[in-house]
Design goal:
The complex is a heterodimer of chains A (467) and B (98). Chain A is α/β, with parallel strands linked by helices. Chain A is built from 19 helices and 22 strands. In chain A, strands 1, 2, 3, 4, 5, 6 and 20 form a seven-stranded mixed sheet that branches. Chain A has a five-stranded parallel sheet with strand order 8-16-10-11-12. Chain B has a single domain, classed as 2Fe-2S iron-sulphur cluster binding domain, sarcosine oxidase, alpha subunit, N-terminal domain (Ubiquitin-like (UB roll), Roll). Chain B is globular, with a radius of gyration of 13 Å. Chain B contains one helix and eight strands; from the N terminus they run E-E-E-H-E-E-E-E-E. The chains are: A alpha/beta (467), B mainly beta (98). Chains A and B meet through strand 8, helix 4 and strand 9 of A and strand 1, helix 1 and strand 5 of B. Strand 9 of chain A pairs antiparallel with strand 1 of chain B, so a sheet runs across the interface.
Chain lengths: 467, 98
């Protein structure tokens, strides 16, 4: 079991040990700032370098060079002298830079002079009919099992969706001897034309060659259907079949595993609960925080680095982590010399606009209709949401009172974007005008006994005692 | 549903699922071990009793909720297996005292 933080005050607290968090931690600790890195997983790496120090898949070829590039960055963080705690759940952060963290069943509050949120991304909800059936998972879920446990599908398996991760996962599953029956590509045909103006930057970025090679590798072994415009999972108590429409033709395949992916979106819960201003991003179709060039948010002292700052990928995350760290060092150690990273940043972000436009998910896969579940926790359908709008629900927060959407254990992570877009369309407003769930700590469920056993002073006790 | 790739040299860990011993590997999460076991490990939701399995495996969807060593509503995808761990598949909402 991990130990609680050793101190209650740090110069810098970094939240999340993915590419951005590891890079930031190394830099601030190397500069002599007391640095604490808190991470929810059992080891470093975040999602993209998950299980980098423990994966049973040791061969360099199987997971690819991009994965293994994380090993050195994870090692640098470990050697930096920073205090690193895994299996630590940060459940609160406020504008006073006070952090509530749960480790090993007990909670503590710690204070930081600077906080770097590096909580990364999650997969965009993919609300199709039947997406709650056992056997329907995200592509990222399958990749997590592949990296951390060497597990690959061995049943009738369909991959569906779009974006680089889908192809990478398919290639990795095949390399490890797993089974894929079909890949259903949902990239809208119109996106190829819309993305053309950004093609030059993409062609000269590292994504291009790698992406092509991976798609060729997969197509050589698996039947790929392009231009999929409809998708549904069906079964009684578990997934039994996948139905799709491509080029106007409908087909049903038997399947026990359906892996869905339509890109990733920032994991906003902690930053929003801290009060960080976010805006609707019309290109990436998600909420992104309002930040300056160094990642500083609307709350003084809180910076956001990595995909939580807007999706940019692992290489950009490393640079963003270093930039946020550099800014913290500049403030806390004014005599220190900070390297300008703007050239690295431009290089790491090259080609991103092309990917954003090409892989912008189609409306029918973001905004479901009828009986399709929107809120997995409370089992609320698209029709339920629209019916609530018809009788007066004005936005996501009012909808909670009507339908409890966003009030289950996932706290809106799997329904929030869908609810915002559905309500915005139904009310003839923009997602920015409709807004998002008002998020509050605890951003992850914790035991009431953990809160009750927090150390408290006289003032806190008197605040709730009458008389 | 899933099989283990060849060449996995990690040590075995025995956990108990509803009283049945299954062999996991060191570093597996509870959810990964359950999915690899081949057993019916579907939970039932608190709202309708619908059957579910883990969806995201990274701590955001809460469809992996499971009772571990007598404590309910744990996110199985975030908890590594440990020798002798007792797992119960959660049917419906968390019970008082669990």
């Amino acid at each position: 079991m991990s130990a609680a933080p050793k101190h209650d005050r740090y110069d810098v607290v970094v939240i999340g040990a993915g590419p951005a968090g590891l890079a930031a931690t190394t830099m601030t600790a190397d500069a002599g700032l007391s640095t604490l890195l808190l991470d929810e997983n059992a080891g470093p790496g975040g999602q993209v370098w998950r299980a980098i120090s423990s994966t049973p898949v040791k061969s360099e070829v199987l997971l690819g060079a991009d994965y293994w590039s994380g090993a050195e960055i994870a090692k640098a963080a470990r050697d930096s002298g920073a205090e690193i705690i895994h299996r630590a759940t940060v459940w609160s952060l406020d504008r006073n830079l006070e952090i509530g963290v749960s480790v090993g069943g007990g909670s503590a509050f710690i204070k930081a002079k600077r906080v770097i949120i590096a909580t990364g991304a999650q997969e965009r909800p993919f609300p199709i009919p039947g997406w709650t059936l056992p056997g329907v998972m995200t592509a990222g879920a399958a990749q997590t099992m592949l990296k951390s446990s060497g597990l690959v599908p061995d049943c009738p398996t369909v991959l569906a969706g779009q974006g680089p991760l889908l192809w990478l996962l398919a290639a990795q599953i095949l390399r490890l001897g797993g089974r894929i029956d079909r890949v259903l590509d949902t990239t809208p045909r119109a996106n190829y034309i819309a993305a053309l103006p950004h093609a030059l930057a993409f062609l000269t970025s590292p994504y291009f060659g790698k992406g092509l090679a991976m798609m060729r590798e997969v197509r050589a072994k698996v039947r790929v259907i392009s231009g999929v415009t409809e998708l549904a999972a069906a079964g009684d108590g578990k997934l039994e079949s996948v139905t799709y429409v491509a080029g106007g033709k409908r087909e049903t395949l038997p399947a026990e595993l359906l892996l869905l992916h339509q890109g990733v979106v920032p994991n906003v819960n902690l930053a929003m609960a801290a009060g960080v201003e976010h805006r609707w991003n019309e290109l990436q179709l998600c909420w992104t925080p309002v930040l300056d060039a160094f990642g500083n948010s609307s709350i003084p002292g809180i910076a956001i680095a990595g995909d939580g700052a807007g999706i940019g990928g692992a290489q950009a995350a490393v640079v963003r982590g270093r930039r946020a760290a550099g800014d913290a060092i500049k403030e806390l150690r004014p005599q220190a010399e900070i390297i300008d990273l703007s050239a690295e940043m431009a290089r790491a972000e090259r080609g991103r606009a092309f990917l954003d436009v090409l892989f912008q998910p189609a409306k029918q896969f973001r905004m479901p209709q009828g009986d399709t579940i929107v809120c997995r926790c409370e089992e609320i359908t698209a029709k339920d949401v629209l019916d609530s709008v018809a009788i007066g629900a004005t936005g996501p927060n009012q909808l909670k009172a009507y339908r409890r959407t966003g009030m289950g254990p996932c706290q809106g992570r799997l329904c929030g974007l869908t609810v915002t877009e559905l309500m915005a369309e139904a009310r003839g407003k923009s997602p920015q005008e409709i807004g998002y769930y008002r998020l509050r700590a605890p951003v992850k469920p914790i035991m009431l006994s953990e809160l009750a056993s927090l150390p408290k002073d006289d003032e806190a006790t008197k605040a709730v005692v009458r008389g | 549903m899933f099989k283990r790739a060849e060449g996995d040299a990690r040590a075995s860990v025995t956990i108990h699922v509803e009283g049945r011993a299954i062999t996991a590997r060191e570093g597996d999460t509870v959810s990964a071990a359950l999915l690899a076991s081949g057993l019916d490990v579907r939970r039932a939701t608190a709202v309708s009793g619908a059957k579910r399995l883990p969806y995201c495996m990274m701590g955001v969807c809460f469809d992996c909720l499971v009772t571990i060593d007598g404590v309910g509503n744990r996110q199985g995808c975030l908890v590594p297996v440990a020798e002798g761990m007792q797992i119960e598949i959660q049917k419906g909402k968390r019970e008082i005292g669990k």
